[in-house]
Design brief:
7 strands; binds xylulose-1,5-bisphosphate; binds magnesium ion
Amino acid sequence: MELKALLFDVDGTLADTERDGHRVAFNAAFAEYGLDWHWDVDLYGQLLAVTGGKERMHYYVDRFRSDYAKPDDFTDLVAELHRAKTRHYTRMLQEGGIPMRTGVVRLLNEAREAGLRLAIATTTTPENVTALLRHSLADDANDWFEVIAAGDIVPAKKPAADIYLWAMQQMQLTPGACFAFEDSENGLRSSRGAGLKTLITINDYTRSHAFPGAAAVLSDLGEPGHTPDVLVGNLADQPYVNLAAIRAWHAAD
Ligand code: XBP
Ligand code: MG
């Protein structure tokens, strides 16, 4: 079947947002509310097992803070903390930005020139996606994506397949006409669950994850003059990830 669309995860895939972005914003929100919660780099790696910021805070308290007495309105408090976290995170993007990962801008430009349709399928809050695209990619980058499927738009977050299914439904496309980009085990379970062939580019938090069924597992997308490390599969005889490689993975059994 002809390849018509590319579907991208955001956190860890388009940009390395977790360690120096989301994590720092969570800690700023906790400090703002006078909580003695602090997520260091290692702990945050464990907390990433749960997708979604609100879900992650609930998991943290249940799993690591048996000493914390939850108030009656704890769910409301978490929602409030999460709004503060989103404010800190989007301000950080506005002030300094977090760069796109290697090869992302080049590949998006190649895909747009070729007339491929583009979409986002992520667990993060919509404002975070908008801010990242605007400040780290281009002023008009939100318009590059036909659909931005994000956050609570579906009740079951990754690893559930729902966010990818929702995005494809909006585009009136079947999984056979699409190809996905992910960085994590939860993300791959979601995209594979939706029937999508998927390329993995790992990062420091996801290097040790298992990636069954990935089209290939690479260090990054690469650039002219920089060939990515291949951890699983091959680069389809290309020097870096370009549309020829993606078409080859998409066509493979
Ligand atoms: C991203 C996430 C998100 C962000 C935080 O996962 O897990 O929860 O860490 O975002 P994926 P919010 O890359 O698989 O989509 O705080 O806005 O929920
Ligand atoms: Mg991700």
